[in-house]
Design goal:
With 136 residues, this protein is α+β, with helices and mostly antiparallel strands. Helices cover 18% and strands 33% of the residues. The strands form 3 sheets. Strands 5-6-9-8 form a 4-stranded antiparallel sheet, covered by helices on one side. The chain has a 3-stranded antiparallel sheet with strand order 1-2-3, with helices on one face. The longest helix has 12 residues, at 53-64. The chain binds iron/sulfur cluster.
């Protein structure tokens, strides 16, 4: 008598991809290339599918140290209008919400001009916070 286990019923088509295989969408331009990332048994990464070298760079960044651009609105003490801000460079994905918390705890006052640096060393990373509009 054959014993039927859940694995015996699985279709080969539904088998999960190996851990070493990932597809990452490059955000370098509107082409949105799908970059397939595989890891050789020796640990070396291999990238395919990008239309230019930026895709490999983006995919490598994404698998080793993912970052995200951060823009947000923050309240300003003497203004009813919130201030739009951005970080000077993308922030580590793992710390994204910690950055947001720190940014929203800042006490900012008018006048503010586009390009003003509102904080210089967010989360101790050297990443700055920059105003992206004027507020008088
Ligand atoms: S790999 Fe090059 S062409 Fe493709 S999305 Fe990235 S930047 Fe654009």
């Amino acid at each position: 008598m054959t014993k039927h286990t859940p694995d015996a019923k699985k279709s080969p088509d539904l088998a999960p991809a190996p851990d070493s295989l990932r597809t990452i969408t490059c955000t370098g331009c509107p082409m949105g290339c799908q970059v397939t990332v595989t890891q050789e048994p020796g640990g070396e990464w291999h990238f395919s599918g990008a239309q230019c070298s930026r895709g490999d760079v983006h995919a490598r960044q994404e698998i080793t140290d993912p970052v995200r651009p951060l823009t947000t609105l923050i309240p300003v003490r003497s203004s009813r209008t919130p201030l739009s801000v951005k970080t000077s460079q993308p922030v580590p994905k793992a710390l994204f919400w910690d950055f947001v918390d720190q940014i929203h705890r800042l006490r900012i006052e008018c006048p503010i001009h586009t390009g003003d640096i509102l904080a210089e060393n967010l989360m101790g990373t050297g990443i700055a916070l920059i105003a992206t509009r004027n507020l008088e």
